[in-house]
Write a structure and sequence with these properties.
Blueprint lengths: L2 E4 L3 E4 L3 E2 L13 H13 L4 E3 L8 H10 L7 E6 L19 H15 L4 E6 L8 H13 L3 E7 L3 H10 L2 E7 L12 H8 L2 E5 L31 H6 L1 H14 L3 H12 L12 H8 L8 H12 L9
Parallel strand pairs: 3-4, 4-5, 5-6, 6-7, 7-8, 8-9
Antiparallel strand pairs: 1-2
Length: 322
């Protein structure tokens, strides 16, 4: 597996694995035993970068990842996140609010260390910007955790360019996680991608396959379960699915030239943007994992990239991302 560097020295596989859907936010969910086996097979295939969060479950996703990867903890990089408010004993919930107070960050770190079964958190992201806590205080709290040996690297998620710069001035940011894909590219125009390049910060795109749409395996007749987040997503209404077929058709056409699937072309497009970009597609099936990993071997020329850009400029993507 090709390796890439996030920040100054965090070496990870060119493709990581988003673990959220293994226990939270989508359906159907496999058994714990199936997911542990899947994570083991991911490591065997060369994946060493795994993404989770306290809020996924809450807690259960970190517990799953920690148990599954404990035998490989010296070989893998596990990223987790803080930043959501706790609702009593229920733990952090996305709808309850944000909480990036320094004391809360440190409480989350201690609990995540136990659930992940590690001595130090490899990469600790602020899950979402908290308007009530200056980013300098957030970065300062993580800096203290790094000095204490409890965290190795600091990350941000969905932050704007100014926030990134302010945080980086206090504690160097190793990686920014943000949605980025062939059909969602605002970070190219709002200064975020430029800030990452200038400051030497790696980019970790989530939803690189458009929540599954860019695989070409979803059509307007698709029925989503009530607990599948796509059942409430504007881009997954029958009308939007039908209208956005042009994006999949483009990926399919390029794929036929490259002997690749639409998903592989979508991931190869991201990998070709910058050498410090590491997508984290989510998967729970080995055939999908193997398909995604095949993207590393799909090489897009500059002519291919230019053709994709020109084609996407002519396509109007229908539906907000949330």
């Amino acid at each position: 597996m090709e390796k890439r560097i996030l920040g100054k020295n965090l070496e990870v596989s060119a493709l990581g694995l988003g673990c959220m859907r293994m226990s939270f936010g989508d359906a159907p969910i496999g058994s714990k035993e199936e997911m542990i086996d899947f994570l083991h097979k991911s490591v065997e295939r060369g994946v060493n970068f795994f993404d989770t969060a306290e809020v996924y479950g809450p807690f259960t996703n970190e517990e799953l990842v920690g148990e599954a990867l404990e035998p490989f903890k010296d070989q893998v990089v596990i990223a987790t996140k803080f930043g959501f408010k706790h609702d009593g004993d229920k733990g952090p919930l996305p709808g309850v609010g944000l909480d990036s107070r320094p004391e809360q960050i440190k409480r989350v770190a201690e609990a995540s260390l136990k659930r992940l079964r590690v001595d130090a958190i490899d990469l600790f992201y602020q899950h979402r910007p908290d308007p009530n806590v200056p980013i300098e205080e957030v970065a300062g709290a993580v800096k203290e955790l790094i000095e204490e040996g409890k965290v190795k690297h600091f990350g941000l998620s969905e932050s704007d360019a100014e926030t990134i710069r302010r945080a980086h001035a206090v504690q160097p940011v190793t990686a920014l996680q943000s949605e980025y894909s062939i059909w969602w590219t605002p970070i190219e125009d709002n200064g975020v991608l430029a800030a990452c390049e200038e400051l030497g910060i790696g980019l970790v795109p989530y939803s690189p396959l458009g929540r599954g749409y860019l695989t070409g395996k979803i059509d307007k007749n698709q029925k989503f379960a009530d607990n599948d987040i796509r059942s409430r997503n504007p881009r997954f209404t029958p009308e939007a699915i039908d209208a956005n077929q042009a994006v999949v058709d483009l990926l399919d056409r390029i794929g036929q030239e490259k002997d690749a699937t639409p998903a592989q072309v979508a991931l190869a497009w991201l990998l070709a943007q910058k050498p410090w970009i590491v997508p984290i597609p989510g998967s729970r099936k080995l055939e999908r994992l193997d398909e995604n990993l095949g993207a590393v071997n799909v090489k897009l020329t500059q002519a291919d990239l230019d053709e994709i850009r020109r084609a996407m400029l002519k396509i109007t993507v229908v539906g907000d991302r949330y």
